[in-house]
Amino acid sequence: MILLAGSICAGTLASHVASVLAVIARFRRRDAGTPHTASASAGVSILRPVCGTENFIEETLRSTFVLDHPRYEILFCVADADDPVIPLVERLIAAHPRSDARLLIGDSPVSTNPKLNNLVKGWHASCYDWVLMADSNVLMPKDQLQRMQAAWCKDTGLVCSPPVGSVPQNLWAELECAFLNTYQARWQCFADVIGLGFAQGKAMLWRRDLLDAAGGIEALADEIAEDAAATKIVRSQGLCVRLVRVPFVQPLGHRNLADVWRRQLRWARLRRDTFKWFFVPEIFAGAVPTLALTALVADFTGWPVLSIVVPLAALWYAVESLLAYIAGWPLSLRIVVLCMLRDTVLPPLWVAAWIGDEFEWRGNAMTVAVGST
Residue 271 CB: number of other CB atoms within 10 A? Predict the structure, then answer.
C-alpha cells in the first residue's frame, strides 16, 4: 500500500511539472502563420450568443468590431426579445456603420442547451465557409481570426481557445483566475500538446462543411454541452481538436464565492457526464491528494513529514507560478495562496460532481441526468 501511495505521488508530481513545462514551451514558440487550408482573405462569420448583461459586456462585444481581418460578418444572437442587452447591441451596431453586423432575435429549441438553441439561427443565417462561435464574455484580440486559422492544419476539425481569467477585481475573482488559468487552461493546452485536444465552447472555429457533414449545428444537441458534442463529432471524423497557441482572455471583474463554486460544479458535472473516464483521475490533479499521500509515506517510513511535504508544496506552486509569470497571467502572493485554496476545494468539488446531476447556467436550471428534458 505504501509503495502504491509513493508511486501515485511520484506520478502526479511528474505529471504536474511536465504539463507546466510543456505549456511554457508552447507559449514561447512562435506561431507558424496562416495554414494552407485557409487564405488570409477567407471570410469568417462570427456568431456571438448574448444573454443579459454582465461584467465588461460592452468592452467584450465592442472588440468584435475592430478585428484586423479583411472580411467578416458579425451575428449577435439573442433568444428573448425583452433581453436587456439588446439596446447595447443595437448601439454598438449603430456606432460601427461600416461593419457587416446584424442582431438576430429568436430561439430554436433543438436541445436542452439554451446557448445552442440561441446559436442555431445564427448558423443558418451566416454566409461564410468559416464560422466562429465566440461567447459574449470573451475579449477578442485584433488578430484572433488569424491566430485561430494559424492553428488549423490538415488533420484539424475544430480550433478552440479556453478562457484565461484577467482583470480580477476582488478576492473571489482571483480564485476564479486560479481555476481558469494555471489549472484548467494549462491542462487543456497540455492535452493538445499530447494529441488529446478537446473543445471549449468559449471560442470555436468551424469549417462549415465539416459540421454540415455531421448533420449541421443541430448535431451539437447530441450532448448537453455543445463543446463535448463538438469534440466527439470531430474525433468521429478522424480529425483533431486544436487549440490556439496562447488562449484568449475573459475579463472577470467582481465575483462572489457562490458563483465560482456553481460555475466549477457545472463544468465538473458536465465533464463527468460526457467524458467519464477522463474525469475519474481528476481527483489527483490538485496538490492536496499528493501532499496527503506524501505525508502518509513519510510518516510510515520514519522521515520528518514537514521536511518532505513543505519542499514538495513549494515546488508544486513554484512551477505553477512560473507558468503564470511567463504567460503574463495575474500573479501575486495572494494568487498563490488562492491556488492552494483551489486545490483544497478540488476534492470536495470532484465528489460533488459524482453525487448530483443538476446545475444552473445563466438562470436556467439544467441536469445531466440521462433522459431528462
Answer: 19
Q: How far apart are the C-alpha atoms of 160 and 141, rounded to whole Å?
A: 14
Judge whether 301 lies within some domain.
Answer: yes
pLDDT digits (tens, 9 = 90+) for 149-158: 999 998 999 9
Nearest to 223 by CA among 111, 81, 143: 111
Backbone conformation region of residue 195, classed left if phi is above 0, alpha if psi is from -120 to 50, else beta:
left
User: Taking a C-beta distance cutoff of 8 angstroms, is the pair 254, 196 a contact?
Assistant: no
93 belongs to a structural domain: yes
pTM metric for this prediction: 0.93
Give strand pairing partners of 253.
168
Q: What is the pLDDT of residues 39-92, one digit of tens each?
A: 556 899 999 999 999 999 999 999 999 999 999 999 999 999 999 999 999 999
d(CA 247, CA 241): 14
- Cα 7 from Cα 333, distance rounded (Å): 31
Rounded-to-integer distance, Cα 2 and Cα 219, Å: 48
Q: Is residue 297 part of a domain?
A: yes
Write the CB contacts of 41 (distance below 8 Å, at least 6 apart in sequence): 70, 71
Residue pair 186/19 in contact by the 8 Å Cβ criterion: yes
Radius of gyration of the chain (CA): 21
Tell me if residue 177 falls in helix, strand or coil: helix
**Are 6 and 43 found together in one domain?**
no
